[in-house]
Design a protein that fits this description.
The structure is a single chain. The chain has 200 residues and is α+β, with helices and mostly antiparallel strands. It has 3 domains: 45 residues, no CATH class; 84 residues, no CATH class; 58 residues, no CATH class. Helices cover 20% and strands 35% of the residues. The longest helix has 13 residues.
């Protein structure tokens, strides 16, 4: 692995990064690599614009499956700290799946009765929620569109951010079951794709 030197970083920023990483038990290399991966995957706006979030989200209190489920003390759910007023959220997973999803409430109203999204870790679910909060996407602005894959015939759902106008947007969707791609017209940008099961 190549070595690089970081120079001329704002001291207060570097101190805050080190403090948070130490508090979460993470090493700085892991934190920086995660940020670089996110940028490489298009997760940070281009053009040199500095985007500072008004709300810094963090994984809060963790709940575990417990010994009764036979999974020991593995986390299955985290409260989210740092949300805007009127918002509540959890990231969670079930004992039957390694995938993490997001549950959001706005003014006490639950958006969906099941976790939305399909993320490989709690941290990635948190990162997706942070982007949604930064972009001002509210719970009520999400539309759930059901689909069935023409290749494997399994069902999945696509969460779309609905901007409130009547415009439709073309997207290339990838089936979360088999990876088959198709072109679809949706009411807004894709927020998440969730597996829902087989078609009878």
């Amino acid at each position: 692995m190549s070595s690089y030197i970081l120079r001329d970083l704002p001291e207060d920023l570097w101190t805050r990064v080190k403090t948070r990483a130490a508090g979460e038990g993470r090493d700085l290399q892991t934190v920086l690599l995660a940020l670089l991966e996110r940028y490489a995957d298009g997760g940070v706006p281009e053009g040199g614009r500095a985007v500072r979030s008004a709300y810094i989200l963090q994984l809060g209190h963790a709940r575990t499956f417990g010994r009764a489920a036979g999974l020991g003390e593995e986390p299955c759910e985290y409260d989210i700290a740092g949300l805007p007023p009127g918002e509540r959220a959890l990231v969670s997973r079930t004992a039957h799946s390694p995938d993490w999803g997001i549950l959001r409430w706005h003014e006490g109203e639950l958006h969906s009765g099941k976790p939305r999204g399909h993320y490989p870790s709690a941290d990635e679910a948190l990162a997706a929620l942070q982007i949604a909060i930064d972009e001002g996407r509210q719970v009520g602005a999400v539309v759930v569109v059901p689909f069935r894959c023409v290749e494997c015939r399994r069902r999945f759902e696509v969460d779309c951010y609905h901007p409130g106008d009547s415009g439709m947007v073309s997207h290339h969707l990838k089936c979360p079951h088999c990876g088959h791609e198709r072109l679809a017209v949706l009411p807004g940008d894709v927020a998440a794709i969730t597996r829902t099961g087989l078609v009878e």
